[in-house]
Amino acid sequence: xxxxxxxxxxxxxxxxxxxxxxxxxxxxxxxxxxxxxxxxxxxxxxxxxxxxxxxxxxxxxxxxxxxxxxxxxxxxxxxxxxxxxxxxxxxxxxxxxxxxxxxxxxxxxxxxxxxxxxxxxxxxxxxxxxxxxxxxxxxxxxxxxxxxxxxxxxxxxxxxxxxxxxxxxxxxxxxxxxxxxxxxxxxxxxxxxxxxxxxxxxxxxxxxxxxxxxxxxxxxxxxxxxxxxxxxxxxxxxxxxxxxxxxxxxxxxxxxxxxxxxxxxxxxxxxxxxxxxxxxxxxxxxxxxxxxxxxxxxxxxxxxxxxxxxxxxxxxxxxxxxxxxxxxxxxxxxxxxxxxxxxxxxxxxxxxxxxxxxxxxxxxxxxxxxxxxxxxxxxxxxxxxxxxxxxxxxxxxxxxxxxxxxxxxxxxxxxxxxxxxxxxxxxxxxxxxxxxxxxx
Length: 440
Fold this sequence. Notes:
about 15% strand, about 60% helix, 8 helices, Outer membrane efflux proteins (OEP), 4-stranded antiparallel sheet
């Protein structure tokens, strides 16, 4: 379910919305895969995640750009209202030793213009920053996949809930039809003096309770569909429905792979290790290439000989910087070492927790599978008992209480079956997430 090309998928989804046939009631009956694909394109969290990935790529380019030469150009103009004064030793002019004479040198107009180039030849800080940006880019990708996994999990969970609620409504409608049929027969029996008003009241109460359950289930279904639209990035007023057939595949043993949580924890450990390595290398010298070329101008605007002359100046060389003392570096290294050890402990804990979740999900799925088989048989048996109780009640060999008791047993079997279905589907989802198979 991974996105191969996000723009192509957007176009395909828009076309599917335009031409997909509408089901009864004007709502589109979408399959789970369509809901997931739509959410992967239009979900706001994932859209923000794709923007974060773009930012991460730009940060990597920015970090690599620190290795490129930096070229700067500058110019300045200075007019000296008072020329700089220098002290000249008189012994230079055959004067007495230890005596000085003040003198002003220069001209009032000074102009400078130059172009400077600086290029790092060796800088462990820049190299560490590039590696950190690359690791952070990988972490951003893992976090996006984690967001994808969460969206798929939530969409599938809501989709299954909608399907179960739909089947619950089918059961309620069937039970309500049975009760209403009993009501019709009971009213006829009452007119013939063969039934009491109490019996009729019990059935009316049963019908009202089922009607209330139906209204509640319909409200829950609407809420679930609204939540599904929100995750899919669709407007709430857009009609939507799910396929009613629950496709429950046989239990699959998913191949275990490192979960995204574990991959994220390990990538964070790599990032901390890189930061520690960069701190340790910060004690090394850095070497850079320097080059400069410019013009220096001198001007004099008074008589007897005003002038403005420019003289070129240029140089190139190598500069080395060596850190002699920094009182905080040692403390930073120790702090980062502790953070790295804690990160390794956290990764081990995530692995153990993931193994626990996978084992529990496997047990829960196995239990739910057995419950589905048992409750399915119980539904068939309860339906047979209910039909026999109704037939016996019509023949006068069974009471209304027997019929209602059979009806309650049927409803309990139906609810157990639905609960087992949802437990199986949720356990299968949990197992997929624990084994890293949910978005495959």
